[in-house]
Amino acid sequence: MELSYRKATIIDAELIAQLASKIWRKHYIDIITIEQIEYMLQNMYSAESLKKQMQEGQEFTIVYDGGSPCGYISISTKDKQHYFLHKFYIDNEKQRSGIGAALLRHVFSTLTTTKTVELTVNRQNYKAINFYFKNGFVIKETADFDIGNGYFMNDFIMIKHI
Hints:
Helix content is about 35%, strand content about 35%. By secondary structure, it is α+β, with helices and mostly antiparallel strands. It has one domain (about 5-160): Gcn5-related N-acetyltransferase (GNAT) (Aminopeptidase), CATH 3.40.630.30. A 7-stranded mixed beta sheet has the order 1-2-3-4-5-7-6, sandwiched between helices. Strand 4, helix 4 (about 100-110) and strand 5 (about 115-120) form a beta-alpha-beta unit. Helix 1 (about 15-25) packs antiparallel against helix 2 (about 35-45) and helix 1 crosses helix 3 (about 45-55).
């Protein structure tokens, strides 16, 4: 495993959208319907949507294994102390290899004044929930978010105190 990291720019939106499409269609098929997967990919993970998220302050980092992109993470903050982890995905074939933990450590090492990091995770996404537990997050609360078109995100809000 030969990992490298690169802060993404607007130019990378299409690459991130392609990674999201590949990962989501494999990972979420047992958690939510294919119709909701397609809806979320179109509305939250299209290149245009990702560009807008970048312009609104989300910072994306892409992880490469041996030069091939295999995942990404996005975070934002309003005060440089409390961060929100919006997106965190590793290629399904690379999961359980240590890449996710390495990417998380890499990004957290750049957040020098951080007090907390929060995220939301689907309550049925047991692999991710266990990963977050192993990396110091705890469940703060349960929340349901109406994302339109009759779809909801049924999530845990998790937090890590740094």
